[in-house]
Amino acid sequence: MPFTVVIIGRPNVGKSTLFNRLAGKRLALVDDTPGVTRDWRSADGHVGGLSFTIVDTAGLEDVFDDSLEARMRRQTEQALERADVALFVIDARTGITPLDRHFASWLRKGRTPVILVANKAEGKAGLPGILESFELGLGDPVPLSAEHGEGMADLVEALLPFA
Ligand code: GDP
Ligand code: MG
């Protein structure tokens, strides 16, 4: 029985880049503009011999307005409902933002298991962000670079219990 992995997180952390890498296809739109992924996209995902359904989410769409939190919850709730495990992606280069903290505290209360992914971790620029991400209370981060394909073995290890 294939399992389902949903990728969540605020805009621009590299969710779609990770999706594309795991899907091995350019199905999700990657862009520097926050909120470019308008819909969920799913594909057959593969990494290190594991096969699963991978789901990309928009994260948060459009502008940061009053409806942000409600929107985030609604969208993420629906995606999480269908998932066996969530990859909660943060940007190790930017570090943890208030939105990441907010999102994390909400995820800690949920039922879906969460793997914390510290993306953009190539080189040394991500080190402070990786350390900072331990504060989120979601366990040890898996540092990786979706763009450069680094850290995939650790991601496989983190996903194994759900396979
Ligand atoms: P999303 O909004 O979370 O889906 O983020 P995207 O996948 O659209 O990526 C946002 C930006 O981050 C793009 O410019 C990507 O090229 C860049 N990006 C994604 N992954 C990495 C990474 O591993 N390292 C670096 N340095 N940049 C990345
Ligand atoms: Mg995206």
From TrEMBL:
Highest taxon, organism lineage: Bacteria
Residues noted as binding GTP 1 in the record, renumbered to the chain: 9-16, 56-60, 119-122
Domain EngA-type G, first and last residues per copy: 3-163
Subunit structure: Associates with the 50S ribosomal subunit.
Known role: GTPase that plays an essential role in the late steps of ribosome biogenesis.
Membership in a protein family: Belongs to the TRAFAC class TrmE-Era-EngA-EngB-Septin-like GTPase superfamily. EngA (Der) GTPase family.
Name listed for the protein in its UniProt record: GTPase Der
The gene coding this protein: der
Included range, full protein: 1 to 163 of 468
